[in-house]
Each structure stands twice: as structure tokens, then as C-alpha cells.
Design goal:
This protein is mainly α and 272 residues long. The protein is built from 9 helices and no strands.
């Protein structure tokens, strides 16, 4: 029968610190997985199924607004019997709609980037994702500064390399890094010190865990991770797509009508 501990309360807090470090390591892994892989995959899926349609609707809506404004400016010039300088009006429209043009450029950048990711072959298979996660979990436990507060230059470089390899889904690099840290202890041993030191460490870890849980919750509740239910519901997705296609059809018709009205207006006016 094992001999009873002489310091049960002290050892209880040591065990608690080890458990908190295990929980912290798991949460760090979950946060990095969401940031580096889940979010990108969700964004690519969203753009493929819906985002590119929404961009087209936004682009056409901007065109409608510009055509309406152009018609307004030319109509005002006609009423004033002014010579219509189309180039000046077009330049004015560029200035007035600068913010929209910038947003359009930004939006098409997101669409192209997401679709490039989707068709680049970087979408991980289930087996690769499991292996990647497993290797990175080992490296986090052995290198992460929150688990090993006493750092040196070598440890910092190894950890940075591990983060980069995980971000790029570089399984070979992660395997090599795991070999290089094989002799390191998985988690920093609890330092033998006063009870006050143990309680302070325990409180710090609980604070970090609370902060990480909030950060993870924020990522899950923000775009595009919060679109998961929609993307997995074919009926809702079909309804949303249909509504966006309806707006695209309406905007195209409106553009056609406005362009016709502009042509008629310019045809009755003097312009350069």
C-alpha cells in the first residue's frame, strides 16, 4: 500500500496545474486550427457556393447606382442647356463612387483568394488533417511559451517553425521538428516552490484558459465559421442562392433600362 503523502494539499495543486496546462494546450491547438485551416476552408466553401453570386449582385448594384447618378447629372445639364462633357461627368462619378470601387476591388480579392485556395489542392484530406493536428499537438506541448515560460532563442525558433509548418499544412516539416524535440519534456514540470507560487501559477493558467475560450467562441461566431449551418443545409442554401440570382436578374434589367434612357438622352443633346 503506497505511503500517504505528507503534503496532500501541495500535491493537489501540482496536479491541478498539470491538468490546466493540458487544457490550455488543447485550447491553443483548437484556436490555431480555427485560424489557420477551418476559417480558410469555410471561406472557400462559402465563396464557391454563394459568395461569388453575392459579389456579382453587389457589383451590379453599384453599376445601377452609378448609372442613375450619371442620368441625374446629364439630365441636370440638359435642363440648364449646358454643353454636356461626358468625360468630366465620368471623372466626377469615379470620385463620388471611389469608396464603392475600393470595396469592389477588396471583395473580388477575397473571392479570388478563397477560390484559389479551394482549387489549389490545399484542402486537407481527413487523414492528413488528423496527422497534422497530432504532430502539431506534440510540438505545442513541448514548445509553446505559455506552457514553457522560460524560453531561449532555440526554443523560440523551433516554435516559430512549427507554427509556420502547421499554417502551411507541411506534414514533412512537422515530422522533422518532432524528431528534433523528441528529448524535450512534453510539459514543463511544476516548479517546486511555495504554496503561494503554485496558487499564482494556477490562477494565471485559469486566466489564460478563460481568455482563449472567449477568443475561440468569437471565431466560431464570426464569418465565415458562423455560416457552417447554412452551408450544410441544402434547402436553405438553395433558397439563399435563388434570392441572390433574383437580385442579379433585377439589377441587370435595371442597368439595361438606364443605359437605354441615357442613350436616348444623349441622342437629343449636344455633348462632347
Amino acid at each position: 500500500m503506497p505511503e500517504p503523502s505528507r503534503y496532500p494539499e501541495y500535491e493537489k495543486h501540482q496536479r491541478m496545474i498539470r491538468e490546466l496546462k493540458q487544457e490550455l494546450a488543447a485550447l491553443i491547438l483548437e484556436q490555431h486550427e480555427l485560424e489557420f485551416h477551418t476559417r480558410k476552408a469555410a471561406e472557400a466553401e462559402y465563396m464557391l457556393k454563394l459568395g461569388s453570386l453575392e459579389y456579382k449582385a453587389f457589383e451590379l448594384n453599384c453599376k445601377v447606382l452609378r448609372l442613375r447618378r450619371k442620368h441625374e447629372l446629364i439630365s441636370a445639364a440638359v435642363k440648364s442647356r449646358e454643353l454636356i462633357e461626358v468625360s468630366r461627368i465620368d471623372a466626377q462619378l469615379v470620385t463620388e463612387f471611389n469608396a464603392q470601387n475600393e470595396k469592389l476591388s477588396e471583395s473580388i480579392g477575397w473571392v479570388n483568394e478563397a477560390l484559389a485556395h479551394r482549387f489549389s489542392g490545399n484542402i486537407l484530406s481527413e487523414d492528413t488533417a488528423v496527422e497534422l493536428r497530432s504532430l502539431y499537438a506534440v510540438l505545442l506541448k513541448k514548445l509553446h511559451p505559455d506552457l514553457h515560460p522560460v524560453q531561449n532563442e532555440e526554443t523560440e525558433k523551433l516554435f516559430s517553425a512549427a507554427v509556420e509548418a502547421y499554417r502551411n499544412a507541411d506534414v514533412s516539416r512537422l515530422k522533422a521538428l518532432c524528431v528534433s524535440v523528441e528529448d524535450r519534456k512534453e510539459l514543463m514540470d511544476v516548479t517546486v516552490g511555495s504554496m503561494d507560487n503554485l496558487l499564482h501559477t494556477e490562477q494565471q493558467l485559469q486566466g489564460m484558459i478563460g481568455t482563449l475560450r472567449k477568443a475561440i467562441g468569437a471565431i466560431k461566431n464570426s464569418w465565415p465559421c458562423n455560416q457552417k449551418d447554412l452551408l450544410e443545409d441544402e434547402e436553405r442554401l438553395w433558397e439563399r442562392s435563388g434570392a441572390v440570382i433574383g437580385r442579379i436578374t433585377e439589377y441587370r434589367k435595371t442597368c439595361g433600362d438606364l443605359e437605354k434612357r441615357l442613350a436616348e438622352l444623349l441622342g437629343r443633346s449636344v455633348w462632347i
